[in-house]
Amino acid sequence: MKEKIYQPYKIKLPLFDSQVWIQHVEILGNETSEFRHYHNSFEVYFPLDGNLKILVDEDILDIPPGHVLFLSPGTWHGTIYEPNVERRYFIMIFDFQEEDPLEKLDKKSCSTPKQLENILHKLRKSSHHVVQDNHHGHRLIQYIGQELLALNFGWESMVKSLYMSFLVSMFRNLVDKDAQISIDENHRQLNVPTEITKYMHKNYNKNITLQDVADAMHISPRHISRIFEAYFGTTFSKTLSTYRLNYAKDYLYKTDYSIEKIAHLVGFSSSRTLLRLFKEVEGITTTEYRKKVKKIL
Fold first, then answer.
1. Using 50, 70 and 90 to split pLDDT, how confident is the model at 188?
2. Coil, helix or strand for 241?
3. Residues 175, 115 contacting (CB under 8 angstroms)
4. Residues paired with residue 96 on neighbouring β-strands, in sequence order
5. Packed helices 236-254 and 210-217: angle between N→C axes, nearest 10 degrees
6. Average of per-residue pLDDT values in the chain
């Protein structure tokens, strides 16, 4: 059975002289429309089934299973939307927060924190790194999925431990190359940017506005806009249009629906809007795109 993983809440974990904030963990697939964006956080992409085709800065990477992609903070990226290509991949977004220097003095000297510092320095020096996984990342992801499915006694602790094991294992790959969340809502820290995108995925085909999202999140529209742009480096309206265009591609590939019907199904106010944006973004018309993808069959 294929794993289903989705963690929309922030989790803080101790790691040596630092605290790790796990911002977002999820398994995604070829049905996911991912817009070009960036985070002020580190991110790991781990292909599970099929090659991961992703735009990183201006380069298109084709990453097979058994490898891992590290993205440094501020790196523009987005998977290439290909609804006709089967793929599944695991993502983890995370940050590091160092402990108080005075607290560090009370701890015994250890080489491992220095190694972690070197790893993070290396990650920040380049926009991305692709390395082979030699430390059973796929197996750890399977264990995470099993814990989240079964919800047996102590599953929260097990998942946290597995998250940490996964991160450490992925970092080991870099070193090799060189030589249900707690039920208590009061303790949950919702990852608002991620929840905004989930809402957009669910309602892209409706006439949604920034106010609708704000109402759903119980936050002001201005704050929603500020959070979204700070986290993803793009605007709400551009992202919504990207979602709609990508889902329009899906209909163009899988159906013979008219452009008018597709425009309505994906939430555009008119077929003219769809045609104009599609040409601007893709560089070809909807008719040309449909002919192109049909030839693949």
1. very low
2. helix
3. yes
4. 20
5. 100
6. 86
**Beta pairing class for 128-132 and 67-71:** antiparallel
Q: What angle do CA 290, 240, 220 make, to 5 degrees?
A: 170
Q: Note the pTM of the prediction, 2 decimals.
A: 0.69
DSSP string, 168-221: HHHHHHHHHHH----S-GGG--B-HHHHHHHHHHHHTTS---HHHHHHHHTS-H
With pLDDT > 90 as the criterion, what percentage of the chain qualifies? 59
Write down the CATH number for the domain with range 192-294. 1.10.10.60
Place of tokens 């008018």: 260
Residue 56 near residue 71 (C-beta atoms within 8 A): yes
First and final C-alpha spacing in the chain: 28
Query: Structural domain boundaries of the chain?
Result: 6-178, 192-294
- How many CB atoms are located within 10 Å of the residue 189 CB? 12
Q: How many percent of the chain have pLDDT more than 70?
A: 89
CATH node for 6-178: 2.60.120.10
* Residue 127, number of CB atoms within 10 A of its CB: 18
Q: Which of 52, 40, 23, 45 is nearest to 128 (CA)?
A: 45
